[in-house]
């Protein structure tokens, strides 16, 4: 695995001059090559490959610097152009001397090495550079990136290929609700809870920054006093950045070390930055914190779970499942009208995310230690939920209030239901988008499951139209249409349900389904819209307990291929 180690270097005067020259040559090559490529695009010609060796013939000063620095600049520019043309990134910009100064070189035949005893790093063209080696590493050096900060400090990042030891497994998970008043509210599966204060480093330094920037605005640009004052402002910003990164690194490492799985909300940070709280959100650096958690979880063998960004974690009562639609952002506490529980907004969101994480782990069959949420959803079960997805048990047995109880087997049965419903929705989407399905048993099971869900066995005991069809055991278009309107389901699923009960034979079922599909195609109904409406049928007027199942589906829908390949194997 690749891991980078960042150190501060203290180059001599001659080494600083060579580093600055390399920065300038890399910047010159980038701008020249980008100009050639953009002009070719304007003329609608094939984009040429601008090699550094060609430019060296015309510009001799490019030979004075590390050739691999120019080669890496070429690779970076080619990648930037490719991403821009495929609309994955913005158009590459010309570099300026005031922008970030950096270049990357590779380790070839030991051109980059580290002496930890003497505190030296050997770099191409520069030789040995004095370095503050505050930590050691073992592994193969791949490359080095030299960077100059706005305050004139020089740093080197050594990219190393090494084996990172996994941390020992833990028996708990945590859910994190990010906020502004408290940076994070963390709920653990062992019952403990923690609120991490938001340090607000930028807000605390605002007055001093305003004072120093005011002084800078009164200096004459280009003068020595202007440069001195610019460095003062830059050092203040650098201090804020270092404080923030130190806080985020320490918190993310502690969370990853103490928990086996971590649950977070998939926040739309870009959307939040357009509001009036943008300054405080930027000061909190949620995105950077999530990035730190992501790569550290990957390094140390932890599992990171993202809840759907529309998951109403704050509005939902974690005790009874009631959803408070009138909850405002200013409401920090609220009382559930159903179970009379007083909720702290952040703690309630954390506990809901914890329940979501446990459900996700169970649904994907994660081989982890037994993880049980502490919160118990107090409810009485009138009937038990089905325990097998291959059997013919009807879904009218599902209780109206889902209960989680760590003392019996109800929890396992509830997560089996999650598992079943995810299969159902994904299966329907695949089938009615006319995508190829390798296993025909999956298609048959999804259709039968959907039909049984929408038309349970009890309906055939009470509904006169259904009883009439059972007596006649023939296909009647008028009765089928009437049942479809009564139960608000499609004719296709009514036909499939009659076939599973043996009322009509398989041949008749297939003929009628083909007819209905032909009618739909003639009406030019979009296949995706039809699949979406069919999924809505499975949720409409079926009780609030299926909202949680819908959230699970939304979280899985982004990686549909993974679910089909892995979860279907567990069914068949």
Describe the structure concisely for a colleague.
With 572 residues, this protein is an alpha+beta fold.
Ends: how far apart?
Answer: 36 Å
Roughly what percent helix? Answer: 40-55%
* Rg estimate, integer Å: 31 Å
Which regions have little confidence, pLDDT < 50, spanning 5+ residues? 366-439, 523-528, 538-572
Characterize the largest beta sheet: strand count, sense, and whether it forms a barrel. 7 strands, antiparallel
Secondary-structure-based class equals alpha+beta
Describe how the helices and strands are arranged.
Blueprint: E1 2-10, H1 13-42, H2 52-58, H3 67-85, E2 101-106, E3 113-115, E4 120-123, E5 127-132, E6 140-148, E7 154-161, E8 173-178, E9 182-188, E10 193-197, H4 201-217, H5 224-258, E11 261-265, H6 269-272, H7 278-284, H8 286-300, E12 303-307, E13 333-335, E14 342-344, H9 345-363, H10 410-432, H11 440-454, H12 457-462, H13 464-472, H14 477-487, H15 491-500, H16 506-522, H17 527-539, H18 545-557, H19 560-571
Parallel strand pairs: 8-11, 11-12
Antiparallel strand pairs: 1-5, 1-7, 2-6, 3-4, 4-5, 6-7, 8-9, 9-10, 13-14
Helix pairs in contact: 1-3, 4-5, 5-8, 10-11, 10-17, 10-18, 10-19, 11-15, 15-16
